[in-house]
């Protein structure tokens, strides 16, 4: 008898094998002897340096987001603030493992209280703690076992450093009990192309060694799967991978309905990688991610250099640049408001530009200069807009520099105002990650609410339909650039709802394009209607799958 668990589908594909689970984390022994401060400090420093060295080695062997995550975790191990906190406990006589644990607990509490991106780094902090404590105790490095046969990794949640080092030939699928579609686990799994399902209730019941099948398209984990059914799914998966590898663009349904397939990028390196894929351009250039480590605002010239690198990579393909989306989960030291009680509902996105128009103007000047220099096809959009006046104010500033202007649809108010917004704009792009958060009053980072922020939620799909219809009335493009666009079945549903472009991680564009090429517009519309009529996210995904096959 097989048992099925359901969660949020993140990376499509099938993976089958015995379950492996991360090794339990080492703990500082309760009876660790006291030590003098210098012994503890030296032992900590030696262990932290070794842990950082190993992480850096793995960072060099990896690439893209995985490499960045590993390098960031290595820096955390050698962070001077951490050493200072350890020193405080060392001065009170704590042994090295005890001092490390106490210091990281204190830092984690501070990061959690700060919220946003800082709070997200708590998983990294605990990962660093476990690695340093294991090194101090002479235990093997904690984390993911290196399986000898193709296996399925199940966990509560995964430390970014662990996910980044995964080998897709031995870890053939991932499922976690926690995490949402925008979590680190999801981002890295997508980059590595490992089928992945997150937020799976009951997953902790599945023991190591059990044979399971993870279906990253349907969002299911099946223990002891029916072999015949499994063989069918594996064959379907093989065909989908083959189709994705052979897809050459441009985006079209089987009956030739055009739908642009675009990539999301954050810097020149990402743009160059994306440009290798059969994309028609970039649908979202997240400019703020180029500046996360900057204490002060980059000059117009510096900004122009960074933007030009992206534009050059794309040649004559279009690039939609998003102005700084600072604040909330992406605090920028030079652009965010300190001490907001609820940063996701605070001064973020365009609100920062409204409070400091000169800063927005400098960014638009930088974009315009890079466009001038490269001759690229550049359009500009603003994040986190809520009123018609804001959209008009922003569009005038962009048009004054000779570029097309748009906004992201990320708030319910812009869904309701879509017809009026089009009077001022050339295009819109729906940010489903934030539109879910604000429509469902559910923090997009909260693992326990990931069913509400699942883009299959019918109310989110209904909002998208309203905006797409407004776009059709205005004769203007409506894109989707949130994570929803990365899922092949959802991409078909979005097409059926009437959106005109899909922008997603470069690694996902082929599977999205290949799936669209297999279905007709009529099928997409029928799948959209079925999903819209479903009572919840899981039923919507099932209903669409029944129509699309
Ligand atoms: C979104 O909100 O869907 C989006 C694409 O923007 P970000 O994820 O950068 O907030
Ligand atoms: Mg957003």
Number of E strands: 16
Query: Which regions contain 5 or more consecutive residues with pLDDT less than 50?
Result: none
Secondary structure: helix percent: 40-55%
By helix and strand content, what is the structural category? alpha/beta
Radius of gyration: 24 Å
Q: What value does the average pLDDT take?
A: 91
Largest sheet: 8 strands, mixed
Q: How many separate helices?
A: 22
Shape summary? globular
Bound ligands: phosphoenolpyruvate, magnesium ion
Task: Using brief descriptors, characterize the structure shown.
alpha/beta, eight-stranded parallel beta barrel, binds magnesium ion, 549 residues, 16 strands, eight-stranded mixed sheet, 48% helix, binds phosphoenolpyruvate
How would you portray this structure in words?
By secondary structure, the protein is of the alpha/beta class. The protein is built from 22 helices and 16 strands. The radius of gyration is 24 Å and the shape is globular. The strands form two sheets. It has an eight-stranded mixed sheet. It has an eight-stranded parallel beta barrel with strand order 9-10-11-12-13-14-15-16, surrounded by seven helices. Magnesium ion binds at residues 383, 410, 431, 433-434.
Which helices and strands occur, and which strands form pairs?
Blueprint: E1 3-6, E2 8-11, E3 14-20, H1 37-61, H2 64-77, H3 80-91, H4 96-114, H5 116-120, H6 122-137, E4 151-155, H7 160-164, E5 171-176, H8 184-192, E6 196-198, E7 211-215, E8 220-223, H9 227-246, E9 260-265, H10 268-275, E10 281-286, H11 300-314, E11 318-322, H12 350-355, H13 357-374, E12 378-382, H14 388-399, E13 404-409, H15 412-416, H16 418-421, E14 427-430, H17 432-440, H18 458-474, E15 478-480, H19 488-497, E16 501-505, H20 509-518, H21 521-532, H22 537-548
Parallel strand pairs: 3-4, 4-5, 5-6, 9-10, 9-16, 10-11, 11-12, 12-13, 13-14, 14-15, 15-16
Antiparallel strand pairs: 1-8, 2-6, 3-7, 7-8
Helix pairs in contact: 1-2, 1-3, 1-4, 1-6, 2-6, 3-4, 4-6, 9-20, 10-11, 11-13, 19-20, 19-21, 19-22, 21-22
Bound molecules: phosphoenolpyruvate (PEP) and magnesium ion.
Magnesium ion (MG) is lined by residues 383, 410, 431, 433-434.
């Amino acid at each position: 008898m097989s048992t099925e668990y359901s969660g949020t589908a993140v990376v499509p594909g099938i993976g089958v094998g015995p379950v492996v689970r991360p090794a339990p984390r080492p703990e500082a022994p309760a009876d660790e002897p006291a030590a003098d401060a210098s012994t503890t400090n030296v032992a900590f420093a030696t262990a932290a340096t070794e842990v950082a060295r190993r992480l850096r080695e793995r960072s060099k062997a990896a690439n893209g987001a995985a490499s960045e995550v590993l390098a960031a975790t290595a820096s955390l191990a050698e962070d001077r603030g951490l050493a200072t906190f350890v020193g405080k406990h060392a001065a009170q006589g704590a042994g090295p493992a005890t001092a490390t644990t106490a210091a990281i607990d204190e830092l984690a509490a501070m990061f959690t209280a700060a919220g946003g991106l800082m709070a997200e780094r708590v998983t990294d902090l605990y990962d660093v703690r476990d690695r340093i404590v294991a090194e101090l105790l002479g235990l093997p490095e904690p984390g993911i076992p290196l399986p000898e046969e193709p296996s399925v990794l199940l966990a509560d949640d995964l430390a970014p450093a662990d996910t980044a080092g995964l080998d897709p030939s031995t870890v053939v699928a991932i499922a976690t009990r926690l995490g949402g579609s925008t979590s680190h686990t999801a981002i890295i799994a997508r980059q590595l192309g490992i089928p992945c399902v997150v937020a799976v209730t009951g997953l902790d019941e599945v023991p190591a060694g059990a044979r399971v099948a993870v279906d990253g398209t349907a969002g299911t984990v099946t223990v002891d799967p029916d072999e015949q059914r499994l063989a069918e799914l594996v064959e379907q998966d093989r065909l989908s991978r083959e189709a994705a590898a052979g897809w050459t663009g441009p985006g079209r349904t089987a009956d030739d309905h055009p739908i642009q397939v675009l990539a999301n990028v954050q810097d020149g390196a990402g743009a160059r990688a994306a440009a290798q894929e059969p994309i028609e351009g970039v649908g979202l250039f997240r400019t703020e991610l180029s500046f996360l480590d900057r204490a002060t605002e980059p000059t117009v010239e510096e900004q122009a250099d960074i933007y030009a690198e992206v534009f050059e990579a794309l040649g004559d393909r279009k690039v939609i640049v998003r102005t700084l989306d600072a604040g909330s989960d992406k605090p920028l030291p030079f652009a965010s408001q300190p001490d907001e009680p609820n940063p996701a509902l605070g001064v973020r996105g365009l609100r920062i530009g409204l409070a400091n128009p000169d800063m927005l103007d400098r960014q638009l000047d930088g974009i315009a200069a890079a466009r001038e220099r490269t001759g690229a096809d550049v359009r500009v959009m603003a994040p986190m807009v809520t009123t018609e006046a804001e959209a008009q104010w922003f569009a005038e500033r962009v048009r004054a520099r000779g570029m097309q202007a748009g906004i992201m649809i990320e708030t319910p108010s812009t869904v309701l105002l879509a017809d009026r917004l089009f009077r001022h704009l050339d295009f819109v792009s729906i940010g489903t990650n934030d539109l879910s958060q604000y429509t469902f009053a559910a923090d997009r980072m909260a693992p326990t609410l990931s069913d509400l922020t699942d883009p299959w939620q019918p109310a989110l799909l209904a909002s998208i339909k309203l905006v797409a219809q407004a776009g059709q009335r205005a004769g203007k493009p409506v894109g989707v650039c949130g994570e929803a666009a990365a899922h092949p079945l959802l991409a078909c549903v979005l097409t059926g709802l009437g959106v005109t472009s899909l922008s997603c991680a470069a690694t996902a564009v082929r599977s999205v394009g290949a799936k669209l090429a297999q279905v007709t517009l009529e099928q997409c519309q029928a799948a959209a209607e079925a999903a819209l009529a479903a009572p919840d996210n899981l039923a919507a995904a099932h209903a669409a799958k029944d129509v699309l096959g």
